[in-house]
Amino acid sequence: MTNASKVIDTLNALIETCKDGEYGFRECAEHATAAPLKSMFNDRALECQAAAAELQRAVAQAGAEPGTGGSVKGALHRGWLSLRSAFPGDDNVAMLDEAERGEDRALESYRQALAEDLPPNVRLLVQRQLIGVQRNHDRVRELKEQYRAVA
Asked: Are 136 and 47 in contact (CB under 8 A)?
């Protein structure tokens, strides 16, 4: 496999990660009961959608076909979100738990991507997006602690 095709594979894997985040945050918004959480989850879904679009443009500029969807693992996680919301308990804390779990996977995906031999412009893009993923993760964790304290 050439380095160019390895870079494309890496970017397409990150597109999957972003699409999983987008779909997962939308699922969390659907099941959360607190309006501020619904709004935050929807905002994060839009950020993930924008990150995926940016990565898709980078793949297209490299002359390859960008990925467009999430992963099977992400679909299974969203199914678990729906099932989990059917059980009694605090849906807000449950959705924040699951959002944090999803962001843990996103952080790992971005860190793995940065371990690859990426061209400087692609490395900068991935590093910049990693900062956003870390910000999302930290915000979700912070909110989870707040909601857990009052639950």
From this structure: yes
Q: Which residue has the tokens 């490299």?
A: 62
Interval 9-49: pLDDT, tens: 999 999 999 999 999 999 999 989 999 999 999 999 999 99
Architecture of domain 3-150: Up-down Bundle (1.20)
Nearest to 55 by CA among 41, 45, 65: 65
CA distance 11 to 14: 5
Give 80-108 pLDDT, tens digit per residue.
555 555 554 568 998 999 899 999 999 99
Q: Where are the domains of the chain?
A: 3-150
How far apart are the C-alpha atoms of 72 and 12, rounded to whole Å? 14
Q: Which of 141, 142, 136 is nearest to 20 (CA)?
A: 136
The predicted model scores a pTM of 0.88
Judge whether 102 and 41 are in contact, CB under 8 Å: no
**Distance from C-alpha of 41 to C-alpha of 1, rounded to nearest angstrom:** 38
The DSSP output letter for 68 is -
What is the C-alpha radius of gyration for the chain, rounded to an integer number of angstroms?
16
Q: How far is the C-alpha of 52 from the C-alpha of 25, rounded, in Å? A: 14
